[in-house]
Write a structure and sequence with these properties.
Length: 148
Amino acid sequence: MKVILQQDVRGQGKKGQMIEASDGYARNFLLPRKLAVLATAENVNTMKMQEKAKKAQEAAEKAEAEAIAAKLKDISVKIVAKGGSNGRLFGAVTSKEIADALNAQHGISVNKSKIVQEEPIKAFGGYDLKVKLGYEVSGTLKVVVAEA
């Protein structure tokens, strides 16, 4: 019996995939638990439309990520922090502070978890940070830490 999976099923397949399952397994397990629906012409058409919509959404998100990466190339974010002697900061500059400053100064909203810091920023100066925007797209963000 051909069924279309509504959720990931271990050992069978991923969501949206059409599989061939035994009649008993499909009738007694997959269908009652709403893990799958019968592969009728209407359901197959719905599955294809959902795949097309998903691909279009992914393409739009990838294009948006590439646009943000291009914007990040040309800008720098200035962060003002308190520090002691020898050019050292009290504490460290976090990725949340960088994301908030980027949004405030340039209007670009980036999730703090996408900003990659090799090591914490604990001194004044300029830094180049990698920003992973998803869909194998990444950009470089220039951060300048200045004394308050």
